């Protein structure tokens, strides 16, 4: 049964990249006018990549750490697959909603606008919400305590090292409009947080 979860995880990661690639390519053509990148942001991005892609891939290729394996369950694969699918939908939708404002790093683009429609009408950071869903999916899909949970650790490091800086960047750029937007939305879970 373990291969089913692993196959779903691999297909999900491939789908994630297929979704991201055209937006990344398009973003390179839009001039950056504000840059909030830092060493800590690079560390946070590296930790997220390591936890959500590198460590699980090493586990799939080598089986290490075998001592952390547990018996996979079909219900966990179904839950993990559903979470991954929903996470990919949120991921794609958040890219579409951002349009030319999207960036991998903390940057303000030329003619940047405050996006508050689509998923952004409910939460300020749907892309982080998608990462949380995908990290939860990984925990269900990979029957290994270390590889499965590495995604959540990577997500938490990324989120808590980066979200305050990102919100400060938006406040510096959009001022009172962003304050009003924050007052009517939550960060990553609608109506909760």
From TrEMBL:
GO biological process, one term: methylation
GO-annotated molecular function: protein C-terminal S-isoprenylcysteine carboxyl O-methyltransferase activity
InterPro entries with a match to the protein in the record: Isoprenylcys_mtase, Phopholipid_MeTrfase
UniProt-annotated location(s): Endomembrane system
Keyword Membrane carried by entry: yes
Keywords: Membrane, Methyltransferase, Transferase, Transmembrane, Transmembrane helix
EC number: 2.1.1.100
Principal subcellular localization: membrane
Domain of life per record: Bacteria
Top-tier EC class: transferase
Membrane-related topology note: Multi-pass membrane protein
Transmembrane segments: 6-23, 43-62, 74-91
Protein name per the record: Protein-S-isoprenylcysteine O-methyltransferase
